[in-house]
Write a sequence for this structure.
């Protein structure tokens, strides 16, 4: 992919002149080719022996270039200079894509009513007994006539109240965030190459390339691909740019711990009258112990109801909602430069 992109860029550069020789990231014209369309071909050829840019060492084996490289804030990306108008590479250096998780919260627990109310086998609160009709209304706090429900010789069994678990939820930000599907690259890089002449340097070990006409560009050679690269002494400054990224960041699942600090107790009351106004007896059930309403011999309850004695369900500790994972940069390319291309960046 990178080599294909590089070749296409060089073909674009080649279109700037005719009869070209493509070598590395520069497009070379012989003096004859360069001067074939000049108004005075002889004068053109006479002045063709001098490099109009700069003579630099050819790229070692495994490298392409040289080319002019710019690195800086993506929003400040410049145009390629006129001497090197072809963009032969674009990549990225750092990301501006902060990742945050919505805080985890827990719903409030609640003291819940016991499963039911039963008639014991005797006055001593023993035996499984039978479910009491109208128990749900009684437990919900309604005053229920009990002439046909309770007697003066059998106790009533009240199950233990329970605490409902908490439900996890995320606390959404007050203002909805607009999340772009594309990564936001903070810093990027751009390599530019152009048309030069192959026979303008004094030695074949040198090649004529465009001069650094803009102070934010540096002469660099490039290794487009994976693997470790050692920069040669002529190009000592290493810059690594990337084609893309894999975002493997995520938020851990929101969960809630069990309720703590809970205290729930329910009291069952019986009354002498049918309007729950003259108290006869009381029995309390807690989260640890079931309750029993013992009968009053010779007095049958006329009404009953249940009330919360203590209704403090406590709270749950949230956990989760923590960021994990990393951004993995992919498709690295290594540039070896004479100086840092971002030396004047802030």
């Amino acid at each position: 992919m990178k080599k294909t992109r590089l070749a296409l860029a060089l073909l674009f550069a080649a279109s700037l002149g005719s009869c070209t020789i493509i070598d590395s990231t520069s497009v070379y014209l012989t003096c004859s080719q360069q001067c074939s369309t000049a108004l005075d071909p002889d004068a053109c050829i006479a002045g063709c022996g001098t490099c109009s840019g700069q003579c630099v060492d050819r790229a070692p084996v495994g490298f392409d270039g040289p080319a002019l490289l710019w690195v800086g804030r993506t929003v400040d990306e410049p145009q390629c200079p006129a001497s090197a108008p072809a963009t032969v590479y674009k990549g990225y250096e750092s990301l501006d894509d902060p990742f945050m998780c919505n805080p985890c919260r827990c719903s409030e627990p609640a003291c819940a009513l016991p499963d039911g109310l039963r008639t014991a086998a005797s006055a001593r609160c023993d035996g499984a007994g039978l479910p009491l009709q109208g128990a749900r209304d009684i437990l919900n706090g309604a005053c229920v006539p009990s002439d046909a429900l309770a007697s003066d010789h059998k106790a009533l069994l009240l199950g233990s109240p329970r605490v409902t678990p908490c439900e996890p939820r995320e606390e959404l930000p007050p203002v909805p965030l607009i999340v772009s599907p594309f990564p936001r690259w903070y810093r990027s890089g751009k390599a530019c190459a152009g048309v030069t002449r192959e026979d303008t340097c004094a030695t074949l070990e040198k090649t004529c390339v465009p001069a650094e006409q803009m102070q934010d560009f540096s002469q660099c050679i490039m290794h487009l691909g994976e693997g470790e690269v050692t920069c040669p002494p002529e190009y000592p400054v290493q810059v690594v740019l990337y084609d893309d990224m894999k975002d493997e960041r995520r938020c851990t699942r929101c969960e809630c711990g069990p309720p703590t600090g809970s205290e729930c107790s329910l009291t069952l009351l019986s009354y002498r009258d049918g309007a729950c106004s003259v108290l006869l007896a009381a029995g309390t059930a807690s989260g640890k112990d079931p309750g029993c309403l013992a009968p009053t011999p010779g007095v049958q309850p006329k009404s009953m109801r249940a009330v919360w004695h203590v209704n403090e369900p406590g709270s749950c500790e949230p956990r989760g909602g923590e960021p994990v994972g990393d951004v993995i940069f992919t498709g690295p390319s290594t540039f070896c430069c004479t100086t840092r291309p971002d030396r004047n960046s802030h």
Observations:
- The chain has a mean pLDDT of 80.
- The chain is about 10% helix and 40% strand.
